[in-house]
């Protein structure tokens, strides 16, 4: 019987989900508080409207644009500011698509990833749809040789700036602007192999040359091809996804079928954020994970 898990990240010193409700979330990124849309937060907030209005910046959608909008700033925020998690330092920014380049929920898997990578000398890690590179940096810090693939040149530059900020310029990370599916196909022909593969595909996207990506249609094929890239004794495969109408159970079924010939554990569930005051949980993403050892689990809370 399939069991879906709820994973919350360890406590961050530099991030806090303060409150949520009425289709929005109230967060702290470093010293700044932000209000951003959140379609799943259909409940009532715990804090008063007056307290929400004290946020430093609020994102407002622009009708007719594809998720784009503008930030209404109560006080002037810098173009970018540093944030920290354990030994990593990286830049947060206000983007026209409400994101800040920082996704704290991903850190719910990082302890598992570090355990997997610690079992092998210089493991090879492939990160697809890597965006601003925090998971890539965490893997590199753990001693892995990392190949990071993303279709966006600005995102890749941002990730490289995060590498410099973290003091990891001497670590092996190969940054590539490429279409994920095309890159994986080329790696298969080259005979390259990886010990651990991470992917965070969007529901819809375009490659650097206009290649179309539709999650519901193309994910199963991409996962099968990624499995063909695994080493003879793989450490893990992790898929996460946002803003999609498919279930975590769907991801588990796709990954479980692709990994059927391997001995290991397949698990799935939701990545969730916990409100600091009330303890209420906010769903953030879905995931599925195959592990050759112990599956990802809830880490004991500790500030990082």
The secondary structure category is alpha/beta
CATH topology of the largest domain: Rossmann fold
Number of domains: 2
How does CATH name the architecture of the largest domain? 3-Layer(aba) Sandwich
In CATH, what is the homologous superfamily of the largest domain?
Answer: Vaccinia Virus protein VP39
Helicity level: 10-25%
Q: Give the tally of β-strands.
A: 17
Residue stretches low in confidence (pLDDT < 50, at least 5 long) are none
Coarse morphology? globular
Characterize the largest beta sheet: strand count, sense, and whether it forms a barrel. Answer: 8 strands, mixed
Q: If strands are numbered along the chain, what order do they take across the biggest sheet?
A: 1-16-17-15-12-9-10-11
Describe this structure in words.
By secondary structure, the protein is an alpha/beta fold. It folds into two domains: 12-84, Sandwich (Immunoglobulin-like), CATH 2.60.40; 100-291, Vaccinia Virus protein VP39 (Rossmann fold). It is 23% helix and 32% strand. The chain has helices spanning 49-52, 110-118, 134-141, 153-165, 180-190, 215-228, 248-258; strands spanning 4-7, 15-21, 24-29, 32-37, 57-61, 69-73, 81-85, 88-92, 124-128, 145-150, 173-177, 196-199, 204-206, 212-214, 236-241, 265-274, 281-291. Strands 1-16-17-15-12-9-10-11 form an eight-stranded mixed sheet, sandwiched between helices. A five-stranded mixed sheet has the order 2-3-4-5-6, with no helix packed on it. α5 (180-190) runs parallel beside α6.
């Amino acid at each position: 019987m399939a069991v879906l898990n709820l994973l919350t990240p360890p406590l961050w010193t530099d991030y806090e989900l303060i409150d949520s409700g009425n289709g929005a979330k109230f967060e702290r990124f470093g010293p700044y508080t932000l209000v951003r849309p959140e379609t799943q937060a259909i409940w009532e907030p715990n804090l008063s409207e007056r307290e929400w209005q004290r946020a430093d910046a609020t994102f407002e959608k622009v009708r007719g644009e594809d998720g784009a909008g503008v930030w209404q700033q109560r006080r002037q925020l810098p173009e970018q500011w540093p944030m920290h998690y354990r030994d990593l330092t990286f830049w947060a920014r206000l983007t026209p698509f409400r994101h800040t380049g920082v996704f704290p929920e991903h850190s719910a898997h990082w302890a598992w990833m570090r355990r997997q990578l610690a079992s092998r000398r210089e493991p090879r890690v492939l990160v697809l749809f890597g965006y601003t590179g925090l998971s890539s940096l965490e893997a590199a810090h753990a001693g892995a040789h990392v190949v990071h693939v993303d279709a966006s040149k600005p995102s890749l530059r941002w990730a490289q700036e995060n590498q410099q900020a973290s003091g990891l310029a001497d670590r092996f990370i190969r940054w590539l602007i490429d279409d994920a599916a095309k890159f994986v196909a080329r790696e298969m022909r080259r005979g390259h192999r990886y010990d651990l593969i991470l992917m965070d595909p969007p529901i819809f996207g375009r490659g650097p040359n206009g290649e179309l990506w539709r999650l519901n249609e193309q994910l199963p094929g991409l996962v099968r091809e990624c499995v063909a890239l695994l080493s003879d004794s793989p450490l893990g495969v992790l898929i996460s996804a946002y803003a999609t109408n498919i279930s975590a159970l769907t991801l588990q079924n796709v990954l479980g079928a692709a990994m059927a010939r391997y001995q290991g554990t397949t698990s799935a569930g939701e990545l969730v954020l916990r409100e600091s005051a009330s303890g209420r949980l906010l769903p953030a993403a879905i995931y599925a994970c195959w592990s050759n050892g112990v599956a990802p689990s809830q880490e004991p809370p500790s500030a990082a």
